[in-house]
Write a structure and sequence with these properties.
This protein has helices spanning 62-65, 107-111, and strands at 15-19, 27-35, 39-44, 53-60, 70-86, 89-105. By secondary structure, it is mainly beta. The radius of gyration is 14 Å and the shape is globular.
Length: 112
């Protein structure tokens, strides 16, 4: 199998908030498994479909940024969904491509 990734992936387990742009009220919590500048893989309980558009918000902790917390707000699209069993709970593993993102550092992140 040929590796198709162009960006380096980092194994990071971070909290992530997922929202479907069509349903502004429905915010779902998940957790990343790996992330790059072009995409991420996360687990979530909500049923998502390939092709779905997503609003993604995650926090890079000070241990990663070596400074203040950094918030990443991104727009993406689901490219793959697979069932996963974790700690006897059925969840979904979701691979998503990041189409654009904004980085918000420190105190400014709390006010946006």
């Amino acid at each position: 199998m040929t590796e198709r990734r162009n960006a380096r992936r980092y194994d990071l387990s971070l909290p992530v908030m997922i929202r479907m742009p069509a349903d502004v009220q429905d915010l779902q919590a998940g957790e990343t498994r790996d992330i790059s500048t072009r995409g991420l893989y996360f687990v979530i309980e909500q049923d998502l479909q390939a092709g779905s558009e997503l609003d993604i918000t995650l926090t890079l902790p000070t241990e990663v940024t070596h400074g203040s917390e950094v918030f990443v707000r991104a727009a993406g699209k689901v490219v793959r969904v697979e069932p996963r069993t974790e700690a006897r709970n059925m969840r979904l593993g979701v691979a998503a491509v990041i189409e654009r993102y904004d980085i918000i550092r420190g105190e400014n992140a709390r006010h946006n």
